[in-house]
Design brief:
about 140 residues, 6-stranded mixed β-sheet, 9 strands, 5 helices, Metallo-beta-lactamase, Chain A, single chain, 3-stranded antiparallel β-sheet
């Protein structure tokens, strides 16, 4: 497994964390919180020879979701977000995108996940641990 943290520039001007998880055997890849600078993310996926399987969103705030549509258009992949945060993907009052960029963000999750769900990426298995806080925030951990 390769786990790479990228500091991604957002339209706000402050960088945010984006993670790329890569299974070396299957080449399946997951990008966590692609906030922007999609070309940088795509470049790393291509360097690894990865096949994007999932775009995982830890929560729905604009500084974590602004690159999702472009990344999905360029690389495919299914959008995953916890059920309780999914409502904010298309609600500017929740995702706060008007404060970040003058652009309407419209996203639809391919799958809504719940606490204790398993996510498979090649030979890797992740368990979702629901840890609400900042929003109704979620994390995944490697088993």
């Amino acid at each position: 497994m390769i786990l790479k943290e990228l500091k991604i520039n957002t339209w706000v001007g402050d960088p945010t964390n984006c993670y790329i998880v890569f299974d070396e055997d299957s080449k399946e890849t997951m990008v966590i919180d692609p906030a922007g600078d999609v070309d940088k993310i795509v470049e790393l996926i291509n360097i690894l020879g990865g096949k994007l399987k999932y775009i995982y969103l830890t929560h729905c705030h604009g500084d974590h979701i602004l690159g999702v549509t472009e990344l999905k258009n360029k690389c495919g992949g299914k959008i995953l977000i916890h059920r309780e945060d999914s409502e904010g993907l298309n609600d500017a009052r929740i995702n706060l995108t008007p404060y970040i960029i003058e652009k309407t963000i419209e996203l639809e999750a391919d799958s809504r996940i719940d606490d204790n769900d398993l996510i498979h990426l090649g030979n890797l298995e992740f368990r979702v641990i629901h840890t609400p806080g900042h929003t109704k925030r979620k994390y995944i951990t490697l088993l």
